[in-house]
Every structure is written in C-alpha cells, then in structure tokens.
Design goal:
Elements: E1 7-15, H1 19-30, E2 35-38, H2 47-50, H3 71-76, H4 86-99, E3 106-107, E4 112-118, E5 123-128, E6 133-141, E7 163-166, E8 181-185, H5 189-201, E9 204-209, E10 215-217, H6 225-243, H7 263-276, H8 292-309, H9 313-319, E11 332-334, H10 337-340, E12 346-350, E13 356-359, E14 363-366, E15 370-372, E16 375-378, H11 387-390, E17 393-395, H12 402-405, E18 424-426, H13 439-459, E19 462-467, H14 469-484, H15 514-526, E20 532-536
Parallel strand pairs: 1-2, 1-6, 2-3, 4-17, 6-18, 7-16, 8-9, 8-16, 9-12, 10-11
Antiparallel strand pairs: 4-5, 5-6, 13-14, 14-15, 19-20
Helix pairs in contact: 1-13, 13-15
Bound molecules: flavin-adenine dinucleotide and NADP nicotinamide-adenine-dinucleotide phosphate (NAP).
The site of flavin-adenine dinucleotide has 36 residues, from helix 1, helix 2 and helix 13.
C-alpha cells in the first residue's frame, strides 16, 4: 500500500486494548501483518483498566476467565483466588502485553474519533483525537460491549458540588471515602459489588435503588496449592468443555429436569448451586430461563436466602426483585451485599416509592426527602453493546453513517460483519454470544475466525469483504427469535437497550449458545463465506 504523507498505512488497525484487542494485535503480528492498536486509556486492560471501584472482581472464575491460546501462559500464571480482584486481572493483562510484546504496537491515550471508508481503494481512513491519521485495509473494533459509561439524565446531574465518581471511570490514584456521606445510584453488578466495601469505609452510605437485582454470594476464597496443581492437570479438558458449551464455561445443569425430582432433591440441587457461588445459580436446571415454573422455583429459593440475611423486612421486600424472572438480567455476584443493609450506616432508598426529583449542589432530593452528601457515586451502567461504536463517527460505503444504519437497532451478520461497512469487523458485537458467554473465550473464538478469514482473503486476492444485507437481516431475526423463546425478553435490561432512553428495544446478544454460534461460524468459513460479498482485486489496491 502507498499513502499520503500524513496517513500511516497499515494492514490492520485494532481499536481497544482490552482482552479482545490485545489478542487481535497478537494474531496480526503472528500473521505477519502490519498492525496498529489504538487505546483511549494509558495502558492495556480495557474493562479492568477503567473499572477500579472498590470490590471490582470477575464473576466468572478466573481459571476460566483468562486466555486459553497459549498453554505456557495458562500454566505459568497463578490466580490467587477463585474470583480475582480488578488489580489482579489488570496485572494479568499487563503480564500478557509484556510477555508477547504487544504494547509497542499500541498508541495509548489516543481515542479514535472517526473511521471513513473509501470505496475506490477499499481502505479506511481512521482519525484520532491526537491528530493521527491511518490508512487501514482492515479495521477491527474491539471497543468493548460495556465500555461506554451511561450518565443518567436526572435533572441537575451536573449540579452536585461535592466529589462525583463513576464506577466505570474510577480514579487510578484511588479515593478516600473515610468519614464521608456517600450516595450511590445504581444497583447492578457494579453497585452491588462496591456497596459492602464503601459501607465499611464511608461515614454513611445511602444506596438509591431504582430496580432491585438478584444477587448470589460469590463464596470467594483463595485457591489452595492442591487446587493449583489440579487446575493445571485438568486445564486441557476444562477448556475443551468450554468450546461447544452454551456460555463458554465448563459447567452443566443438574442432570435431571426440575420436574423429575421431588422437592427435597430440587432444594438440594439449588443449595449446591447456590454454594457454588454467583451466576451459575441462574442455570441450576435446564430451561430455568425458559420455563416460568422452574424459574419461579429458583426465585423462591433465592428469596428465602435474602430474607434470612436482611433483618428489616421492609428493606428485604425492597431488595428482592419482583419485576423480572431470575437470571434474565445478569445475576450479580456479591460478597456481603445484603448483609451491608444490616449496618447502621447504610440506608436503602427505594426510588420506585420515592423518586429522585433532582440532584442539587449538596445532595439528592426525592419527592419525600433531602439527602445531604459529600460524595456521589454513579454505578449507572453502560450504553451497552452499541455505545462504543455509535460514539465514533463511522462512515462506510458511500458515506453510510453507522448511527443511521443502526437507527432501528444493530444489524450484523454473526455480530462480526456489518452490511455497508466493508473490511470492518466488530468483536463481541451485537448479534454474537458476547456478554452471555465467558467473554475472553468469546473474543478468542471471533479473533481466530477473523484471522483465518484474512488469510483466505489474501490467498484469493480479495480486497473487500462485506456482510450481505439479507444475511444480516436473517441473522438478526434469528437472534431475536432465539431471545423470544426465553424469559429474557420479560426484563428491562441493558441486553435489550431499555436502560438507555431513546434506544431501540431489541435483544442484542445471541442467546442460541456459544457452541451453536461457533458451529455457525465454522460452517461459514468451510463454505467459503457465502453470506459475505467478496470483491476481487481488479488492479492492486493502492492508497
Ligand atoms: P473492553 O475491555 O471494554 O476494552 C475496550 C477498550 O476499547 C477500552 O479500553 C476502551 O478504552 C477502548 N476504546 C473504546 N472506544 C475507543 C475509541 N473510540 N478509541 C480508542 N479506544 C477505545 N465478562 C466476563 O465474561 N466475566 C466477568 O467476570 C466480567 N466482569 C466484568 C466486570 C465489570 C466491572 C465490567 C464492566 C464488565 C465485566 N465483564 C465480564 C465484561 C467485560 O467487559 C469483558 O469480559 C471483557 O473484559 C471485554 O473485553 P474487550 O476487550 O472486548 O472490551
Ligand atoms: P447495570 O447493570 O446497567 O446497572 C446500572 C444501575 O444503575 C441499575 O440499577 C439502574 O437501574 C441504575 N440506573 C441507571 N440510570 C438510573 C437513573 N437515571 N436513576 C436511578 N438509577 C439508575 O450496570 P453495571 O452494574 O455497571 O453492570 C453492567 C454489566 O457489567 C453487568 O451486568 C455485568 O455483565 C458487568 N459487570 C460485571 C461485574 C462482575 O461481577 N464481574 C461487575 C460489574 C459489572 P435500572 O435497573 O432501573 O435501570
């Protein structure tokens, strides 16, 4: 490729230095392609770089929530706990970057502002906020499904004069909350994980809850030396189980149907899963998120657990969800969340009974009371799955704007290709299992598929590839139909965009299973990519 002086030519431009982007850069180097990575943060880690709030840790066991592509890395890295903390996961990301010498390919503290496709050359002009310009043959957006923080549109949201914090952009240098009157808005996983630690440190904590969430204790603990040995011996088999599983994890549901067993056995199965900790409880029995009767059994079990912890019955009523089936929003994984509400310095404000009227310079006003605060924490989630992409000025073939193309919801083929946007790929994007799977393994699967595709394009002298519009429409319909067969559609969640005002309500992740999705991707590859438009080079592409 040639290019104008101001434009740096590159085979692949990867946006994002989270686990997906880092693996993309690794694969590009391995494939002998020139690559540049662009990252807004000043280091690698993505989610684990930004979300440094107290209590942040993974909710998929670390031995599973880690790269599988390199056996030495897998065997040498030691996870100290079942669910690693954010600092440990960030250290792991940094270790991987150093081990495979990835950082030298990245431009940090650099945000991609635009990506414009040039039909004549089948290349992308990518511009950053630092004024750099790249001319890329392929652009891989590994920008994250949960990376565009949501600032709530509460009246007076900018008026608070005290300290304002976002869990999703927690200051690197840390924060002292000692003795402070802290207000926390949001009771998703971030709010639920941070509540117990904030409660321990702050003078007082007022939790403003719009919707309660199901949460299961992590039962986190250090991994013993014997477990470390066993993990390494079992790793190959454990990873193999993930490959064609429903959510890229090694666990299976209870071997009998919830209807087949008597009450005592059912209770024992729930108890065992509860004690296993976290999100797995949501899949104790097959069909638990499909069949409302089985779901209700699980719900009632969880309710008994919560009521046994929370001393004030009114607070317990407020904390337990009644507005959606269990597991149809991401189940939270906590360490002492419900217990925190038994503390004298913690108060729950149920915004369904007592809505916020405004945020003021000194605190929060509801229609019933005034809460004076020193620190206000927003744990208000993300413009999930599409936000990171639609916040960039992306224009595809003939200037098609991604915001326009996705005005009625994201349209992708397999979550990777977008009609109208040739040579552009999204990783763990809408229409892929992404957030419903162990996301590191999900990213590895897509990146591996993508680099096989790049090799195919090279071998066949193809300069442009674009998902066919009719294939993408059919795929998105399939994604929607798969969701409709479950109880997930009964919840207002970020899975379907209902957490963001004005966003089209559409279930975005593919719920048909990680294994089934892998099979579809493999078939697409084996058949020579029939759902993509392939353009052969008539003359060599010049830039
Ligand atoms: P990210 O890690 O989000 O990285 C994307 C990167 O792209 C970011 O660093 C961002 O700065 C950068 N970026 C975005 N836009 C631009 C731009 N325009 N220019 C330059 N850079 C840009 N998943 C699990 O499977 N298990 C878990 O236990 C789990 N825990 C989580 C805990 C939290 C607090 C959160 C928020 C999410 C969690 N997730 C979990 C989901 C998590 O996002 C994924 O597991 C994974 O880390 C995503 O990696 P990624 O590389 O796809 O995206
Ligand atoms: P979230 O689940 O979307 O929760 C956001 C919270 O903010 C919700 O309680 C929401 O209430 C509330 N909120 C938003 N706008 C509000 C407003 N205007 N007024 C009052 N409340 C408002 O976001 P999250 O907690 O950051 O989690 C997002 C996802 O990231 C999780 O589901 C999970 O996949 C991942 N995550 C994982 C972990 C982990 O355990 N490893 C930790 C954190 C995050 P409503 O529900 O009423 O909208």
């Amino acid at each position: 490729m040639t290019s104008t002086a101001a434009e740096r030519p590159v085979d692949v431009l990867v946006v994002g230095a989270g686990f997906a982007g880092m693996y993309g850069v690794y694969r590009a180097v391995k494939a002998g392609m020139s690559v540049v990575g662009i990252e807004a943060g000043d280091d690698v880690g993505g989610t684990w770089y930004w979300n440094r709030y107290p209590g942040a840790r993974c909710d998929v066991e670390s031995i599973d929530y880690s790269y599988s592509f390199d056996a030495d890395l897998q065997n040498e890295w030691v996870w100290t706990e079942r669910y690693a903390t954010q600092p440990e996961i960030l250290r792991y990301a940094q270790h991987v970057a150093e081990r495979f010498d990835l950082k030298r390919h990245y431009r940090f503290e650099t945000r991609v502002e635009f990506a414009h496709y040039d039909d004549a050359t089948s290349t992308w002009l990518v511009g950053t906020d630092t004024g750099e310009r790249y001319r890329a043959h392929f652009v891989v957006f590994a920008t994250g499904s949960l990376s565009a923080p949501n600032k709530p549109d509460i009246p007076g949201v900018d008026d608070f004069a005290g300290e304002v914090l976002y869990t999703a952009q927690w200051p690197k240098e840390g924060v002292s909350l000692a003795g402070k009157r802290v207000g926390l808005i949001g009771t998703g996983s971030s709010g639920i994980q941070s509540t117990p630690l904030i409660a321990e440190e702050a003078g007082s904590l007022t939790v403003f809850q719009r919707s309660p969430n199901y949460s299961v204790p992590a039962f986190n603990r250090p991994l013993t030396d014997e477990e470390q040995v066993r993990i390494r011996a079992e790793y190959p088999e454990r990873r193999k189980k993930c490959l064609y599983s429903s959510s890229a994890g090694p666990f299976e549901a209870y071997p009998k149907s919830a209807y087949e067993v008597d009450e005592a056995e059912r209770e024992a199965a729930f108890e065992e899963r509860w004690k296993a900790g976290g999100v797995l409880f949501g899949k104790t029995f097959d069909n638990q998120t499909i069949d409302p009767v089985i779901n209700e059994m699980a719900r009632q079990f969880a309710e008994r657990k919560v009521r046994a912890i929370v001393k004030d019955p009114q607070v317990a009523d407020d904390l337990f969800p009644t507005d959606h089936p269990l597991g149809t929003k991401r189940i939270c994984t906590d360490s002492g969340y419900f217990e925190a509400f038994n503390r004298d310095n913690v108060k729950l404000v149920n915004l369904r009974r007592e809505p916020i009227t405004s945020i003021t310079a000194t605190g929060i006003e509801t229609d019933q009371a005034t809460y004076e605060l020193d620190t206000l924490i927003f744990a208000t989630g993300f413009d999930a799955m599409t936000g990171a992409l639609t916040r960039i000025d992306i224009r595809g073939s003939n200037g098609l704007d991604i915001k326009h193309a996705w005005a009625d919801g994201p349209v992708t083929y397999l979550g990777i290709g977008i009609p109208g946007f040739p040579n552009l790929f999204s990783i763990t994007g809408p229409g892929s299992p992404s957030v419903l799977a162990n996301m590191i393994l999900a990213a590895e699967q897509q990146i591996d598929w993508l680099f096989d595709l790049f090799a195919f394009l090279e071998e066949n002298d193809i300069v442009a590839i674009e998902a066919k519009a009719e294939s993408a429409e059919a795929w998105i319909q399939h994604v929607d139909e798969a969701a409709r067969q479950t109880l997930f559609v009964k919840a207002n969640s970020w899975y379907n965009g209902s957490n963001i005002s004005g966003k089209r309500r559409l279930f975005m992740p593919y719920i048909g299973g990680f294994g089934n999705y892998r099979i579809k991707c493999d078939e697409e590859q084996a058949q020579g990519y029939p759902n993509f438009e392939l353009t052969k080079a008539s003359v060599p592409a010049t830039v």
